[in-house]
């Protein structure tokens, strides 16, 4: 593979990874269990859907404190809740898959991951967002769902 082809492949990969991952921004947190080495807390994070302009999702989830939490090796509890809202004009940056991961974040050093999945309900012209966690060996049935109706006259482009 020549240098130009490698650069094009690398640029394409970077674009695809960037287009499918959203960056969470912590809005606030509250302490739930005091520890001298760092309290457990519930954090509220916001992220903008990378492929749908005008939609922001808010995820609240438990975070483990203490020494392990500070070092990033604690396993966070599975509980999470989600609320997605239209915060501006809805604009699609490209066609959407019927179902795809929009955001993932680790909940433990290696084994547990939080997912936010976007599901297109074309019949109702609505975007449905689901949050759940999985684990290499076993996942959790604990989940939360929210929906954002797309304004009439704006069709959801589906691949």
Automatic annotation (TrEMBL):
It comes from the Bacteria. Keywords: Signal. Pfam families: CreA. The keyword Signal applies. InterPro entries: Uncharacterised_CreA. Residues 1-24 form the signal peptide. This is Protein CreA. It comes from Caballeronia grimmiae. The lineage of its organism: Bacteria, Pseudomonadati, Pseudomonadota, Betaproteobacteria, Burkholderiales.
């Amino acid at each position: 593979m020549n240098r130009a082809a490698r650069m094009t492949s690398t640029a394409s990969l970077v674009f695809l990874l960037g287009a499918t991952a959203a960056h969470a921004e912590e809005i606030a947190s509250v302490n739930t269990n005091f520890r001298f080495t760092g309290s457990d807390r519930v954090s509220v994070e916001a992220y903008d859907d990378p492929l749908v302009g005008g939609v922001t999702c808010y995820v609240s989830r438990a975070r483990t404190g203490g020494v392990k939490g500070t070092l990033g090796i604690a396993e966070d509890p599975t509980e999470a809740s989600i609320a997605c809202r239209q915060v501006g004009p809805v604009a699609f940056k490209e066609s959407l898959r019927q179902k795809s991961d929009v955001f993932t974040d680790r909940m433990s050093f290696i084994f547990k991951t939080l997912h936010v999945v976007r599901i297109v309900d074309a019949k109702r012209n609505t975007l449905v967002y689901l949050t759940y966690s999985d684990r290499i060996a076993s996942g959790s049935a604990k989940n939360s769902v929210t929906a954002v109706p797309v304004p009439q006259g704006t069709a959801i482009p589906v691949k």
